[in-house]
Design a protein that fits this description.
Rossmann fold; 2 domains; eight-stranded mixed sheet; five-stranded antiparallel sheet; 13 strands
Amino acid sequence: MGNLNSELFAAIDSVADGANEHQLAVSVQELMKKYRSRVDPRDIVLASDTDVIAYAAYRLPATFAAARSAFEAAAAAVPGFAPATHLDVGGGMGAAVWAASDAWPSLRSTTVLEQSAPAIKLGKRIARRSTGTAVKGSEWERFRLTGAVPDGPRVDLATMSYVLNELTPQVQEEVVRSLARRARTVVLVEPGTPEGYERIIAARKHLLAEGLSVAAPCPHGEACPIAPGEDWCHFSERLNRSGIQRRLKFARLGFEDEKYSFVAATSEPVERPANRILRHPQKRKGLVSLSLCTTGPGIEERVVSKRQGPSYRAARKAEWGDAWPPPEDPES
């Protein structure tokens, strides 16, 4: 189960402390209505201090957990990559800033582009609670995302999380292609829904067209083998809920599962896994069934039996989203 960065957890807790929880709950309901409908890129959804505190308490932990999981997969696929500079687009309150700092401790500077002034204000406030250089010293710029990101110095890493869904297909392409030209490595994260997956697949094509190579999650750089409309590629990260989250969600469980889709592309040398596990492994007595995206490319259903010794033991420990076989087990 994923846990929040302890400093981030404390920072979110501190901004929600003393806030009127009834007002936060009302704001959460209004925000969810807006996000479930089509958001106009010209609209500033996070328009007030109450809105951004409500969003931080309600959604920031899950977006952080998904981004960190995606970034860690990207870091594993590009082991020689030690980025120093980071550009985060549509950064909200900084979930991706904290997640990138966890995945790449080499980061030294981060610039966040965000259109909401209250979100920038709160993001800076939360960032000051960090001891990490890239987070604490992050620079925030107000920018409305209606086309390509502005020209500027080339950066090592560019990220964008839960933003493409707010843009038209034309603007999505302009933004993604401009990020590919600005950064050595680009990581994009979207909700783990069929629509989120479709946006990621479209973005993946744009990144490849700009000359980058797919690093994760795919074990290949060819077209996705999943038939459109029949299934979608996504992953899940389980995280602990804080007290304020449970209250705002009217939830009984102490955890939640955040489903997400992502793509990482890079100009750096990559070390892709032979296969990626696409679903929860089905574990029965003496057998483990794995649904794999393969180097082929293609989807393969593979059964690992107890007779296979080390591979079987590895399969019993394997989880959805893992590389297969694991690096320490060369057998498949």
